[in-house]
Amino acid sequence: MGRGRRGGPKRGNYKNHGSRGNKSTRGGGNFKNKRKFNQDRDGKKDDTSESKRQKLQQEKEAVPIIEEESSSSESEEEVKPYTQLLSMFKSSSRAQQVLTSDEEQSDDEEEAEDMNDQSNEDDIGSEEEDSAQDDEEVEEEESGSSVGVADAEEIDEENSIHEDLEVESEEEEHSGDEEEETLSTDPFHLHFDREINENLLEILTSPKPYETQELKWKALGRMVVHLLTKPEKNTSQPKPTLLGETIESYVIPGSLPVLKTGIPLSEYGVKLQLCSNLDTRPLSDNKQTAEELLSPLQHELFTLANEYRDVYYPEMNHLNNDEIRTVYCLHTLNHVMKSRDKVLLHNAKLKKAKENGVATDEIEYRDQGLVRPRVLIIAPLRNSAVKIVEKLATLLLPAKGQIINKDRFCKEFGEEKDGEGKAETKKSYKPEDFEAVFTGNTDDSFRIGISVAKRTLKLYAGFYKADILIASPLGARTLLAEDFDFLCSIEVLVIDQTDVLYMQNWDHVLHIFQHLHLQPREQHDTDLGRVRLWALNGYSAHYRQNLIFSSVALPEAAALFSRRGTNFAGKVRIENAVTASSTTVCRVLVQLPQAFHRFPTPTAAQSADDRYHFFTKKILPQYRDQIMSNTLIYIPSYYDYVRLRNHLHKEDYNFGQACEYTPDGKLAQVRNRFFLGKKRLLLYTERLHFYRRLTMKGIHHIIFYQLPTYPNFYPELCNLLQDAFQNPKYRGDGSQTCTVLYSTFDAPRLAGIVGSQRAAEMLTSDRPVHLFVSGGS
């Protein structure tokens, strides 16, 4: 009964609506001083009439307030994008209004109690409040008793994170003014705290939003810089944004990058904690320059990434992958910590304003996205995720830091204990690049969320409570079938080892990009009053930074970089020419004539059909002779493999097939028959060679249906034609041959094998056939 009266609809609507004497007449119960109450009833009739007049006047004064609320709601309903989010925001603002009205009610009641001399009614009010508080405590105890053992363990694990949050909130409250002074120079604030004007939006949505310029640095080499085209001069004022009024400052489009030297890393906007953890030297004063803490490659890459430009670097290898991983882990941690510190600073300011009695409805802070995850790192295998987490922990955690759920992570992502696999690797030699990729846990289906605190790194955080998401394309796609809201506020996207992702299934990567920045279906406990306006307007794709690292130049990755990235800060693509000294054709040790056949094709979409017809009509008939036995046909694409397999079946060729789906027993049988000459042709896919690196014996002739994706595969396969791997009846005859098919759309692969200058000559020459002879004395 007491709680029903306290939560009634007539309480807290207006100020000064009467003392508690009016409230006591509504309830039942035993009064201690009935005589005194009856004697004073007649004397208070005039007071009640005056209170009624005050209520009528207050109702008249409240009419325009209601009209204003309705007009504002109508204006909000006119906005088309994200109408569901606006409706959520309205409901949350109404809840805040109810809370503020209750606070005003409590203040008015305290003033009325001071002015009222009736002690018996104070006793009644206190009894009602005590009964309500008792009921609330019972409900809290009942809800608390329903918490399971798993929830209790999570609470224990999160204690350290909450302690860090409290400590950082106090620190940010004192250092807030100092950080506000650096807003004009920090790339983070210049990129995310400003809105896009209408002119830039028109440029970004145009068919050709970028113009290219070239730049050359010492470590990165030749860079193709994509900058926004200059807008036409327009004297009219820019149009306001879709949500909110026109603000004073807009984003500034990116310009040509400038490499700074002799500047401490902290002046780049990097947090001091990260700088101190990056510098492992004893007694360091955190004033070392970026050149002293980073290698030349790291310094130049971090300069580009720190300005939130899109970067495509296709020269990653097993020697520099750790340096590159350090760069993007440092950048992502710095981004997450700045975003987190900004939220804590604004929380402290709101708390301080509330303590001082300032109305917080008029204070607006836009510092969040639609959901919490800000960084997405796509990695191919679990061993890559282990290296990323180890690098994050090394850069973030001090000596007293801790990693929550570390044991579980080591158990699920650690190296698989397989004695047979270890014996196989010891028995056969594998190249260094193969060992770098496939050492450790090679499972390609995983996803994990990581929440970042100042002294804590929590693994296995919920996707909507995590700051960084690490996932493989397959692991992410299995989750996207059920939910995709966690991808709507990604601000930094990192694709590591893109070439390995291409060998897995490139369609999964494209599927992830199709689900970025879609309208969320649920609110996910987001305070929409704190969401940035450009996120509500649907412009998050123009703020997202894409960092793509690969070991080879892939046309698919280049297309993804150019078409899926619309960053107003600009894009940088690394394009270095392959010199003659670094070509892989020079690594062919066996004496082997290599014939490169160029076939004509008008478009890239039609090149697959033209290649098939050219091979089946001009190349394949030459290998029907008995002298052309033991021929291996190397096929990079699985679709071409199926097409050729069906053709050979139709033409009754004596051939074997070896692909990534062939069982081990059948694969060993096919290899043995091919070595003995019982199978004249052998179809061999690139993915099988990538995952197994088999030493195929008995090859006397080799045909590259298409140039390999990895340039080092070409000399590896050509060197298998030496006499040590030949059938005894073919040893020493020197009749081995190599045939290669290529077109103008295979220019990146051809340049990696023969060099950029020679590839340009072969593509523009009038002769369709070019012959190389390697090895010999």
TrEMBL record:
Biased composition annotated in UniProt, kind: Acidic residues: 66-77, 101-143, 165-183
GO molecular function: U3 snoRNA binding
Positions of the UTP25 NTP hydrolase-like domain: 308-572
GO biological process: rRNA processing
Bias type Basic residues, positions: 1-20
Residue ranges of domain UTP25 C-terminal in the record: 585-772
PANTHER family: ORF PROTEIN-RELATED, U3 SMALL NUCLEOLAR RNA-ASSOCIATED PROTEIN 25 HOMOLOG
Name of protein: U3 small nucleolar RNA-associated protein 25 homolog
Species: Daphnia pulex
High-level lineage: Eukaryota, Metazoa, Ecdysozoa, Arthropoda, Crustacea
